[in-house]
Amino acid sequence: MSATKGLEGVVAASTSISSIIDDTLTYVGYDIDDLAENASFEEVVYLLWYRRLPNAIELEDLKIQLAANASIPAAVVDHIKSYPIKQVHPMAALRSAISFLGLFDEEADDQSEEANFRKAIRIQAKIPTLVTAFSRIRKGLEPVAPRKDFGFAENFLYMLTGSEPDSIAVEAFNKALVLHADHELNASTFTARVCVATLSDVYSGVTAAIGALKGPLHGGANEQVMKMLTEIGSVENVESYINNKIANKEKIMGFGHRVYRLGDPRAKHLREMSEKLTKLTGESKLYDMSVKIEALVTSQKNIPPNVDFYSASVYHSLGIDHDLFTPIFAVSRVSGWLAHILEQYANNRLIRPRADYVGPNKQQYIKLEDR
Ligand SMILES: CC(=O)SCCNC(=O)CCNC(=O)[C@H](O)C(C)(C)COP(=O)(O)OP(=O)(O)OC[C@H]1O[C@@H](n2cnc3c(N)ncnc32)[C@H](O)[C@@H]1OP(=O)(O)O
Ligand SMILES: O=C([O-])CC(=O)C(=O)O
């Protein structure tokens, strides 16, 4: 038995949710380019969960359900207030808060399909409220209650700032949510599936997935990209900074992908958004720096940017705190995690691969006093 490092190329599940074939990403067979241009995030959630686009009544119903379930128990707000707020990363806070939230769900351990769909709605609806509540509490502000008349993207931005967002921000944020919603068997989705394949509950699956998304080789990369842009500081500094990284064989965050070889199809949408939004906020320097970094990394390493690279300057332009970039990824990706969790339950088998043992053999136990 020999191991495939990082399970590269291993097909570990069948799915009808999303696919990456020849560098093209589809959700249920719809090209991501089509969805990014045309779909609302709520339509995408419906598509991922029910494998078809909703009609107007079904979409309205989903929106009503999301709005109706967006509030979180007061005990969860108090729990967040008890965190060591100055030192805690928002992804760690979200991981804890979602787990704590599960304690209040009376159906947490009801494994029926109907109960699992109801939990999916509740989790999808409440995740934005958790992230924005944390963000406000650490600034010494009270959380803002979700509005029933706002769509998902609008509500998130509203709860974050307490003011009604403009239509450009809502449109951009909606597109970012659509682009991040699902991605075949990425690390966090695989984590969720492994967890629930033991027939553990939905909250455990989502909590585990948040833990996997947090890492800088996965969802955590978007925050690291912004850190890099901040460190570089100017277009003039880009060349020496990047050349130095390449010379030292250091990874450049926001570049590379396990599956895409020619490039991540989501990156061009975020690049366009970054150009537009950074111009509007008078910070086109960030876009110019990003374009220069992309030119250097692709020409010297032939490694194209992934979804995380331009999303950093997009979220920055929307006025979002840099350490909230990955929680925002979770706010969108939870739709995919939940779709995969439901798909796993529907056709379950324990996920339990083998390991190639490379340790010592035939050792003899030596008593403690003799060691
Ligand atoms: C939403 C997402 O999760 S998208 C990915 C977000 N993560 C990042 O942006 C972090 C930076 N990127 C990376 O670390 C990697 O490209 C990953 C983790 C995304 C994919 O990793 P893998 O498929 O395991 O590729 P691996 O790390 O083995 O890289 C293959 C080669 O390309 C190089 N490489 C890959 N990515 C980068 C990068 N970002 N910068 C510089 N070199 C890179 C590696 O150094 C390696 O070179 P070598 O063969 O000379 O040693
Ligand atoms: O698929 C992956 O490995 C990572 C990724 O791009 C995503 O999760 O969106």
UniProtKB/TrEMBL annotation:
Give the UniProt entry's GO cellular component terms: cytosol
**CDD domains reported in the protein's UniProt record:** BSuCS-II_like
What chemistry does it catalyse, as a reaction equation?
oxaloacetate + acetyl-CoA + H2O = citrate + CoA + H(+)
Q: Name one GO molecular function term.
A: citrate synthase activity
The cross-references to InterPro entries, in alphabetical order and at most eight, read: 2-MeCitrate/Citrate_synth_II (IPR011278), Citrate_synth-like_lrg_a-sub (IPR016142), Citrate_synth-like_sm_a-sub (IPR016143), Citrate_synthase (IPR002020), Citrate_synthase_AS (IPR019810), Citrate_synthase_bac-typ (IPR024176), Citrate_synthase_sf (IPR036969)
Q: Which family does it belong to?
A: Belongs to the citrate synthase family.
Task: State the protein's name.
Answer: Citrate synthase
Q: What is the organism field in this record?
A: Perspicuibacillus lycopersici
The gene name on file is citZ
